[in-house]
Specification:
The protein is α+β, with helices and mostly antiparallel strands. The longest helix is centred in the last third of the chain and has 29 residues.
Length: about 500
């Protein structure tokens, strides 16, 4: 029996899952690690924490599945996008990785726009300069830590650092590289013009491949550390959103997904690049060779609920531990007891600034309408609804670009929660479906490895064989009417507060 490993290097932890060639989950393991915030709006992690988590989770999966390492036909990698990993000439990490949600680079984004030109930047990279993207992080290090930049020999993304640790090879692939803002989206290759104007030496970057290409093989040292067979093929893989879309079967025109993880993403497959000239949504290369995708991003989606849990739900955490259940399940039940609209309470999920539709790193989280009438359960539900309203913002812009779908696939934490699925169906006014597997990016990465090693001829064929629908959640007309009124108020709040956010930052 051939089986395939999907490794997803997320923000809260690394999840490793072993699948059969038919997509059956054989074993799964997750290893968590911390996120550091040295200053307000900053976000960093230690790349070696990722590597330690990868080694531990692979060992656990192999042990739990009891498969022989020789039966593992390939490894697919997925991971949080945009993170800056800098290595010296000996392959050692130079500094903590600056993550996707870090907001320190507003000045560098202005500099990128000035150097390249706003229209030219969108024409080449399909996106305006954003604090979340990697290019602005590189310029920040050039400016603020020149002594480290001088020692830099390679710049990698998080999952590509794991590829290096697994194999000793430097490689990137188009879906993740799209988010660096250094790639020519149409040509699916590094842009000489962007690199020249930003004074970034191309030799710092890894060679870029399509996502299904075999890019490396497990080295002897990594085989010892992980328990994998030396020589096991490693394919390009995908950024977490593209890989998650593959895992959800979003690999053809007319298919759309809504994912609530740390960030929230509304994602659509396209056969040709569709660019929003306002830069409100992002166009990237898809993990499907020769295809693209367009997506809107909410920075603080599941991150908002996690922040609320960690700071205000100590009772739920303790009860969950005592009952051996996830505290989010308890929080779900509390929120479900509150009517739609959270008793006229609204939440803006801008804890880490925002990307779609506002492109504002200075935006901050807000509870609006809070009174003595409200309790913790109201706030939990308001957080969930606010995240859903933000994703509705993303969906509306995608609809403006011509993207449409008869149903939306829900995944991530928002896909697992029945309450959050119903909220999405009601707010989007569209049926929301889930798939049999909830492994998302890990499954997508494994599917890419199956295609790359010959188990399937192409990604759509593999998804047709593996991805199956599970549940359908249909909109409730009464709740949808309440949410429509709440959403109308929600849309007025950011424009009113924009200047106040700027003043608060100063």
């Amino acid at each position: 029996m051939s089986c395939y490993l999907g490794v997803d290097i997320g923000t809260s932890g690394t999840k490793t899952v072993l699948f059969s060639s038919s997509g059956q989950k054989l074993a799964s393991a997750t290893e968590e690690y911390p996120l550091y915030q040295p200053e307000n709006g900053w976000a960093e992690q230690e790349p070696m924490d990722w590597w330690n988590a990868v080694c531990a989770s692979i060992k656990r999966v192999i042990a739990a599945s009891r498969v022989n390492k020789d039966e593992i036909g390939g490894v697919g990698l997925s991971g949080q996008m945009h993170g800056l990993v800098m290595l010296d000439k000996d392959g050692k990490v130079l500094r903590p990785s600056i993550l996707w949600c870090d907001q320190r680079t507003a000045a560098e984004c202005e500099e990128i726009t000035l150097r390249v030109g706003a229209d030219r930047l969108i024409a080449i990279t399909a996106n305006p300069a954003l604090t979340g993207f990697t290019a602005s992080k590189i310029l920040w290090v050039q400016k603020h830590e020149p002594h480290l930049y001088e020692r830099c020999n390679k710049i990698l993304l998080p999952k590509d650092f794991i590829r290096y640790m697994l194999s000793g090879e430097y490689a990137a692939e188009v879906s993740d590289a799209s988010g660096m803002q250094l790639l020519d989206i149409n040509q699916r290759a590094w842009s000489p013009e962007i690199l020249e104007k930003l004074a970034i030496d191309k030799s710092l970057l890894a060679a870029v491949y399509e996502s299904v290409a075999v890019t490396a093989k497990v080295s002897s040292s990594a085989a010892v550390q992980t328990g994998l067979r030396q020589g096991t093929p490693i394919v390009g893989g995908g950024g977490d959103q593209a890989a998650g879309a593959v895992g959800n079967g979003i690999v053809k025109e007319g298919l759309l997904s809504s994912t609530i993880g740390s960030s929230g993403v509304v994602f659509a497959h396209t056969d040709a690049p569709r660019i929003d000239k306002g830069g409100r949504v992002h166009t990237f290369c898809h993990a499907v060779p020769g295809a693209w995708h367009v997506m809107g991003v909410t920075q603080g989606a599941g991150l908002s609920l996690k922040w609320f849990r960690d700071n205000f739900c100590g009772d739920e955490i303790r009860l969950g531990k005592d009952m051996a259940i996830d505290p989010y399940v308890i929080m779900d039940k509390e929120a479900a007891a509150i009517p739609p609209g959270s008793n006229q309470l609204l939440y803006l999920p801008y804890l880490m600034g925002e990307r779609t539709p506002h492109l504002d790193p200075k935006a901050r989280g807000v509870f609006f309408g809070l009174s003595t009438f409200h309790n913790k359960a109201d706030l939990i539900r308001a957080v969930m609804e606010g995240v859903t309203f933000s994703l509705r913002d993303c969906l509306e812009i995608l609809r403006e670009t011509g993207v449409s779908a008869d149903e939306i696939v829900a995944s991530g934490g928002g896909g697992k929660s029945m309450l959050w699925r119903q909220m999405q169906a009601d707010v989007y006014r569209c049926p929301v479906v889930t798939t049999i597997s909830d492994e998302g990016p890990a499954l997508g990465a494994a599917i890419l490895s199956m295609v790359g090693t010959g188990a399937y001829d192409n990604v759509p064929e593999a998804c047709d064989a593996i991805v199956r629908k599970k549940d359908v959640t249909r909109p409730d007309d009464a709740s949808a009417a309440v949410y429509e009124k709440q959403y109308a108020i929600y849309k007025t709040l950011y424009p009113i507060l924009k200047t106040s956010f700027e003043q608060l930052t100063r």
